[in-house]
Amino acid sequence: MKRTFLWLFILAFTIPHSFAQIKFGVKMGLTATNVNMKAATNLQDLELPTARSINYDGGIVLEYNIMGDLLSLRSGLDFTQKGFNVDLNQIKQKFNDIKEISGDWKAKFQYLQMPVNLVYHIGNFNINAGPYLAYGLGGKEIQDLKVILNDNSVQNINQSYDLKPVFGSIQEDLSNAGDSLLIQYFNGLDYGINLGFGFNIKQVLVNVEYQQGLANITPDLANEPNFKPSDLLAKHNVLSLELTYFFQK
After folding, report:
1. Host domain of residue 25
2. Which of the residues 145, 183, 190, 236 could staple to 103 if both were Cys, CB 3.0 to 4.6 A apart?
3. Where does residue 15 fall: left (phi above 0), alpha (psi -120 to 50 degrees), or beta otherwise?
4. Distance of alpha carbon 50 from its chain centroid, rounded?
5. Shortest CA distance to 125 belongs to which of 198, 73, 71, 69?
6. Residues 41-79 pLDDT 10s
7. Biggest CA-to-CA distance, the chain
8. Residue 96 maps to which CATH number?
9. 7, 8, 10, 12 alpha-carbon torsion, rounded to 10°
10. Are 203 and 247 in contact (CB under 8 A)?
11. For the chain, how many structural domains are there in total?
12. What is the pTM (predicted TM-score) of this model?
């Protein structure tokens, strides 16, 4: 995946200008994002039941026509927010000691993201597909919950964590951090694939796109030899609706 992205990126900037028409634009959009989690048998308590979260993205777009009106290469740089909500109904079902739970539990991750999509045009319509690479900037997880246990005792949870991107392994000793260590850190490099469908209205592109992350955002813990990132798989997926305005026709 990384090698494919690199070759497509190089191709985008080595096409002779005599054969390529370059368009520049800006985009903004709404996204419905989630993180799919799958934990090892002995770590099931860390596997959160997640639901989609509404977020946003925006950025600049460059499009290179490489075969007349038939084929182009579309790239750019986006600021994008990904994340998830925790499904509290499933939390109640998962933990037998919870009688009722209400409130809000969510996580949001911010990235700088570069997609590289090959675009096939059919009149005013187009189909696009390709890889993306994203660099984590940070984020936040918020828990604002009221929990009633089976003995009718009440716990009010109101806390938040800054989410810190990690590039490589976490070297510090986190043996006393408990489950929160996997909340406070995430793998800062994300990559995956895009598949979209769009249509043009004059200089405006309306695009619906699905992104599937291939990178596991669970970090590697250097001082925890009994834990591997593959013990808790967590991968982004995003459904987006975007509007792009091109300054050239």
Report:
1. 2-246
2. 145
3. beta
4. 14
5. 198
6. 777 777 788 999 999 999 999 999 888 789 999 999 999
7. 75
8. 2.40.160.20
9. 160
10. yes
11. 1
12. 0.85
